Amino acid sequence: MFFDSEFDRIFKQMSRSFFNTDDIFEGFKGNGSESGPFYYGYTMTVGPDGKPVVKEYGNVKPGQLPASDTREPIVDTIVDEKEKVVKLIAEMPGVEKTDVKIIVDNKVVDLSAERGDKKYHVKVPVQHKVDENSAKASYKNGILQLVFKLVEEKPTGKQVEVE
């Protein structure tokens, strides 16, 4: 049962990380520095190959002190083969669409937004070949949706006829 043993391994790792994070927070309570909310978490899905996929998010990582008051938004990547698009969905509540800045550079999308004490920043690698010029973004109710058209990869090389 590969899935069961893999799930158990990931769960133990997650549990260990949460306890370490709690220790980090305890250390902050005593030194009087107040730099904002600290959060850390996981999202877990099952990939197309049947193996679990765990993604971390937050402004604190286990074993590290928070470096800034900037939050890392939760970002999900959806590939729609039927529509031939890649969608990036990011949760960034508390900001307006005019506050959102998106920079696409060499298969990396840099998302940031700032309004008052709400600050978000994340760099998202795009695993698929997309047309950067086709990017269209919309923001509504704290959800940013960025859509790219997939670029069809044509096979390269030369076909050799058999005699």
TrEMBL record:
It comes from Nitrosopumilus maritimus (strain SCM1). Keywords: Stress response. InterPro entries: HSP20-like_chaperone. This is Heat shock protein HSP20.
